[in-house]
Amino acid sequence: MENLKDIDLLSIDRNWLMPEAGRILISKPFSGDAYFDKSVVYLTESSDNGFVGFILNKPVLTNVNLWQHKHNSDSWNLWFGGPVRSEYVYFIHTAGPEVIPGSIQVADGIYWGGNFNEVSHKIENGEINEKSVRFFLGYSGWEKGQLEKEINDKFWIVGKLETSVVMNTEADIWKEAVKNLGGRYRVWENLPPDPILN
After folding, report:
1. Which residues pair with 50 in a beta bridge?
2. How many CB atoms are closer than 10 A to CB 96?
C-alpha cells in the first residue's frame, strides 16, 4: 500500500481522458504560470491544427461597458479567456443558432460565437439573460502537438463539467472541476491562492 508521505498531492496522474471540444483542462496548482495557474479552461475547438478554449474562472477586474445602455453593463460579467488576442471579446452561450445565427455547437447544448450584433440586440431587448451567455476577453490556443505535450508534462489534467456549471458565473468553477476529478484531487478544492498561506 502506498504511503501517504510518498504521494505528491499537487502532482497530476494522467487519467487518459482525451482533450476535445466540450471538455475542460484543469491546471496543476501553484504552477507559477502567469495566465493559467489554478485555471479551468473550457475547450471549444479540437482539430488536427490544435485547440481553442476559454478560461472559466478568471474574472476581469475592471468595468467594461459592452452595451449602449448602462443598466445592462452592471449585470454582465466579463472573463479573461486567455492570452491570445485579448483585445477582442468572444462568447459562449446556450441560445443556439436559431437565436444567434452563426453559432457553432461545441457539446452538451453549449455554442461558441455567432453574430455579435444579434447578441447585443437580444440582450438590449431582454431576450437573452446573463445565464445564457458568457463573455471573454481573449482566448487560449494551442498549436498542433502543443497541448498534448503539456498534458504529458503533467501541467493539465482533462476533465468534464455539466453545462449548467460551465455557464454558471456564480459557481466556484475550480472547486466543481476538482470535485469531479475525485480521489486525491479533492485536496485541491480548498488550496489558498498562495502556496505559503495556510
Report:
1. 47, 143
2. 14
H, E, C per residue of the chain: CCCHHHCCCCCCCCCCCCCCCCCEEEECCCCCCCCCCCCEEEEEEEECCEEEEEECCCECCCCCCCCCCHHHHCCCCEEECCCEEEEEEEEEECCCCCCCCCCEEEECCEEECCCHHHHHHHHHCCCCCCCCEEEEEEEEEEECCHHHHHHHCCCEEEECCCHHHHCCCCCCHHHHHHHHHCHHHHHHHHCCCCCCCC
Give CA–CA dist 127/82, Å, rounded: 28
Whole-structure pTM value: 0.90
In total, the chain counts a number of residues equal to 198
Distance of alpha carbon 117 from alpha carbon 165, whole angstroms: 26
Q: What are phi and psi of 41, to 5 degrees?
A: -110, 125
Structural domains in the chain plus CATH codes: 20-190 (3.40.1740.10)
Percent of the chain past pLDDT 90, that is, above it, reads 63
Q: What is the pLDDT of residues 37-63, one digit of tens each?
A: 999 999 999 999 999 999 999 999 765
> Cα–chain-centroid distance for residue 16?
20
Beta strand pairing call for 104-107 and 110-112:
antiparallel
Of 81, 85, 63, 83, the residue nearest 72 (C-alpha) = 63
